[in-house]
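Q: Could you fold this chain for me?
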Amino acid sequence: MKLHTADGLTLEAEWAAPADASATVVLCHPHPQYGGTMRSIVISALFEALPREGIACLRFNFRGVEGSTGEHAEGRDEHLDVQAAVETAAVEGPGPLILAGWSFGADMALTVTDPRLAGWIAIAPPLRFRAAADYAAVANDARPKLLELAAHDEFRPPAEIEAETQAWVNTRVETIAGASHFFVGRTDRVVDLTGEFVRGVTG
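A: Sure. Below is the predicted structure, expressed as structure tokens.
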């Protein structure tokens, strides 16, 4: 599957949609310069588990990653990649549309405010790959948000993220015990929290 960005790039993507899907989740992967792809551990766990729960998933590679054209833009233009994925998922996918990302992907997801979105899930967002002002639109949006933080995050302690987001509107924060930033051995909890959030949005 291919996605097409507003600035003319073609992105590699994969789609998983059960026949009885009631919602769709777009999955954004971690930092490309540190090995992040759409097949990274957390993204793969969600892409495999959620369709079994009746939730369609679209995952993609950011610009310059594997089969995607272009070059890594250090977070400046990757929101266009996320928007391209949202555009496709809004047409192809059933039910409410949720935008989810892990690490760098979470930061990129939190800069996209498409009106077709029903909510956001940010997994271990560093909140450092864009300026604080770039997250303001989502932060002040009334649609629901879930922040899934790692208790032992190596990049930013969960207390820092909680403090930075305490004024965000309609935002739930869950800290996953025993988890590092990479969630090795704790992806099950990420799957559970994500599925629960999506089901809550679908009503």
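A (continued): Residues 123 and 148 are 5 Å apart (CA to CA).
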